[in-house]
């Protein structure tokens, strides 16, 4: 099915989604650029991007900033831990009581988990639009291109790619970050052993919502996922 034909109806249902950024969108993109410059030291990090309302040019006065993170395989728990601690200490992490201009760290995948068809719904129009509007900010390894190649079920046009990548920082990779691979792998194992049981308990407590995925290559923590509701409202 050509999901693109439903994008106008989706934007109407969401109440946002336009073709040029408002001042609040630009300000939050600049905030993410500033954050990304300070996160380049994290080993095995492969891409930082913005998704949802800010990337769709529809953030409101009280909107947060949804961050999409890509890591190397077997490093996702380590990167998540380091990034979360850094944002909590030196920036502004989203909490239940703090949303406006805070960073929501709820979506991590590895380079082996870039194919979103593994969790896409049938006729998943919101996910297709999310992919179409995703804004990479920090991508010294060309991971955005690999992401598009992995998701051949939905095509992002050349014009859309140009719009999405215009906020990319001019950065390069630092090989020194990834020396002592054995150490980082062991640290990832430790982080996973500590965090996974708690994460799974929370997942069960919430009733196993479809927006949450706790897999080896995907950590997706959207317990308020509206994809089914939006699809059923606009797809024939």
Protein model, in words:
By secondary structure, the protein is of the alpha+beta class. The protein has a single domain (3-234), classed as Beta Polymerase, domain 2 (2-Layer Sandwich), CATH 3.30.460. It has helices at residues 7-14, 23-39, 52-55, 76-90, 125-133, 143-150, 158-164, 181-205, 227-234; strands spanning 45-51, 65-71, 103-110, 135-138, 212-214, 218-221. The chain has a 6-stranded mixed sheet, with helices on both faces. Strand 5 and strand 6 (218-221) form a beta hairpin. The longest helix is centred in the last third of the chain and has 25 residues, at 181-205. The termini are close together.
Helices and strands in order:
Layout lengths: L6 H8 L8 H17 L5 E7 H4 L9 E7 L4 H15 L12 E8 L14 H9 L1 E4 L4 H8 L7 H7 L16 H25 L6 E3 L3 E4 L5 H8 L2
Parallel strand pairs: 2-3
Antiparallel strand pairs: 1-2, 1-4, 3-6, 5-6
Largest sheet: number of strands, sense, barrel closure = 6 strands, mixed
Distance between the termini: 11 Å
Multimeric organization? single chain
Write down how many β-strands occur, each being a DSSP E stretch of 2 or more residues: 6
The appropriate CATH architecture is 2-Layer Sandwich
The CATH homology group name:
Beta Polymerase, domain 2
How does the overall form come out from the CA principal axes? globular
Strand ordering within the main sheet: 4-1-2-3-6-5
Summarize the helix and strand pattern as letters. HHEHEHEHEHHHEEH
């Amino acid at each position: 099915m050509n999901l693109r034909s439903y994008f106008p109806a989706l934007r109407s249902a969401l109440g946002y989604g336009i073709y040029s950024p408002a001042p609040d969108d630009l300000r939050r993109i600049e905030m993410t650029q500033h954050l990304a410059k300070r996160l380049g030291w994290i080993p095995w990090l492969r891409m930082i991007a913005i998704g949802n309302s800010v990337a769709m040019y529809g953030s409101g006065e009280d909107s947060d900033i949804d961050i999409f993170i890509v890591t190397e395989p077997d490093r996702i728990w380590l990167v998540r831990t380091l990034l979360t601690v850094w944002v909590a200490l030196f920036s502004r992490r989203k909490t239940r009581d703090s949303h406006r201009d805070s960073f929501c760290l709820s979506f991590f995948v590895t380079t082996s988990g870039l194919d979103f068809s593994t969790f896409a719904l049938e006729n998943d129009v919101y996910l297709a639009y999310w992919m179409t509007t995703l804004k990479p900010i920090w991508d010294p390894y060309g991971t955005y291109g690999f992401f598009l190649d992995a998701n051949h079920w939905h095509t992002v046009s050349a014009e859309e790619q140009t719009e999405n990548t215009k906020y990319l920082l001019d950065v390069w990779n630092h090989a020194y970050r990834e020396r002592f691979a054995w150490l980082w792998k062991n640290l990832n194992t430790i982080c996973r052993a500590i965090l996974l049981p708690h994460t799974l308990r929370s997942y069960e407590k919430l009733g196993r919502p479809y927006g949450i995925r706790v897999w080896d290559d995907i950590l997706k923590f959207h317990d308020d996922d509206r994809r089914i509701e939006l699809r059923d409202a606009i797809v024939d």
